[in-house]
Amino acid sequence: MKEIVLDTETTGLSVESGHRIVEIGCIELDDQILTSNRFHCYLNPQRKVSEEAFKVHGYSDEFLSDKKKFHEIADDFIEFIGNKKLIIHNAKFDLSHLNNELKILGKKPILMEQVIDTLDIAREKFPGSQISLDALCKKFRIDNSKRKLHTALIDCELLSKVYVNLIDQKEPMLNFSEKKDGINSNVNSKIDFCKNIIQPTDSELKEHQIFLKKSLKKNYF
CATH second-level architecture of 2-174? Predict the structure, then answer.
C-alpha cells in the first residue's frame, strides 16, 4: 500500500490572516518502506514571511522571491498525492493551508478522510505526554540532529520513521524518568523481548535424567 508523508512550511499560522505556503515536502512509502519518489518545492507566497515563521524555518522573503507560485505546481502536486493516504503530523494545520491554496485556484479540497494524523495516534498512545515531532523522535530514539530548523523534507523523513513506530510499536516502551532507589535516571529505553532458545546436548540430557531419578528417590521413596 502506497502512502504519502507530507509537510508544509508557511508564512505564519493562520490562513484567516492571509498566510500562505512557502514549502511543500512529500515522500512516498510503499508498505511502510521509503521509495525514491518525492515531491518538493519552495514557493513564492506573494506576501511577507512573519518574524515568528522565519525563526521556525529560516526562509527569507529574498530567498523565496524567485521561487514558483502555487498555481505553477498545483497540478503536479495533485497528481503526486493522487488518492493515496496522506501521513501528516497535526493535519489540521497543513490541510487548512493546502486547501486555502486549492480554493484560490478553484480546485477540490483535500478531505480529512484521506489523511492519517500522527498527532492523533500519538495522543491516543501516550496520553499526557509530549507528542511534538521532536518529542516522538526522542521517545523512539530517532536521530533528529539534522533538524536545526523546520524544513519540509527533513520533517517528512523523521515523520516517516515516527509513523512506522507509532503503528507497529514493539512493546514495552519504557521511559525511565522517575527516581528509582534514590537514583534519578533520564534514560529513554526501548526494550524488545525475545526468546533465546538453547538446545541441550545429548550428554546434558542424560545427566539431567540421572539428576531427576536421584531427586525422585530422595523425595518420594
Answer: 2-Layer Sandwich (3.30)
